[in-house]
Amino acid sequence: MLPSAGTWTLIVSKEPSGFHTEYHERADLGRVPLTKSRLDTPVERLTFTISATDADSGVVDMTWETTKVAVPFRVAR
């Protein structure tokens, strides 16, 4: 994750053991912008939720404290 004041970015890397102190941008497989919103009620534990919106698509949400980031997805067949 690359957080910022506005949009956050999910970075998918080829490095399975990559860590922010040794990040190599050249190993990025892709970057996905996440929609950021503020929660009215804080979430104590970092939580990931995958919800279906129909048979072929859904939304991945990450919530923690008063922040929620989300990204829609579609299953390729």
How would you describe what is shown here?
This protein is mostly beta strands and 77 residues long. The protein has no helices and three strands. It has a three-stranded antiparallel beta sheet with strand order 1-2-3, with no helix packed on it. 0% of the residues lie in helices and 66% in strands. It has strands spanning 8-13, 28-54, 57-74.
Give the helices and strands as they follow along the chain: EEE
Mean pLDDT reading: 91
pLDDT < 50 runs, ≥5 residues: none
Q: Report the C-alpha radius of gyration, rounded.
A: 14 Å
Summary keywords:
77 residues, mainly beta, three-stranded antiparallel sheet, globular
How would you summarize this macromolecular structure in one to three sentences?
The chain is mostly beta strands and 77 residues long. It has strands at 8-13, 28-54, 57-74. The protein has no helices and three strands.
SSE map:
Layout: E1 8-13, E2 28-54, E3 57-74
Antiparallel strand pairs: 1-2, 2-3
